[in-house]
Amino acid sequence: MSASAGLEFEPSNTERYEMTILHRDDQDHIATLTMDAPDRLNALSDEMLAALQENLDSIRDDDAVRAVIIRGTGKAFCAGHDLKQMQAGRQSPDKGAAYFADLFARCAKMMQTIQSLPQPVIAQVHGIATAAGCQMVATCDLAIATDETRFGVNGVNIGLFCSTPMVALTRNIPRKAAFEMLTTGRFINTREAQELGLINRAVGAGELDEETRALAETIAVKLPVAVKTGKSAFYNQAQMSTADAYAYAGDVMVENMLDTMTDEGINAFLEKRTPDWS
Description:
2 domains, 2-enoyl-CoA Hydratase, Chain A, domain 1, Lyase 2-enoyl-coa Hydratase, Chain  A, domain 2, alpha/beta, 6-stranded mixed sheet
């Protein structure tokens, strides 16, 4: 497969590329989305964004899925937007500003879909996660990376400030650390990423699949309605004042307590047995 921009593909090649660029595998209530464009370092091309959006939308209403893993093949998790494709968009007389506005709107929609899903989403990160790739790590609810991974919002190095990745990054790590990354283009290692809160933990490369899967499995056995309720509440209350957050969270707790499956879970705990959530 050529590494040239997607706009240069013939229709038949584009169709074949879109069919193979992202793979979904469902096992034991866990959906794994594997970005498979290693020649482009799994860049968020037009095709990749479309494939991710389509699969995330499908997962949203799939009650059989209780956790999601996003990962990549090859040397990198994701190197951000496809710069060759972006430059082709710049040169096209019928695109220009309209193309870029649409591109960033589609990317923002995909990122927001990750956090609006009822299922927790885990980023399984290796190699590098740069620009919009780092944005995706910051956007996912959880992240596990290999201990050799590097993270950056390094667009400033080529004259493009990572403004949209900044949105997720500044909601995930301290502002001064984010601003330094954004203005210097400096990459951080997994130790720094974990200390700042960008990832949950780092593991050896040989442990990445197992550790990520184990985290997903731990979530997948929990009561789905509780996790769904909790994820939504987690992000909603974070935007509120303390008083409003407590009032809102109290209402959420009331609703959760009145669920029949929650009743079963509490009774099972009191009776020292495994809950029947079937």
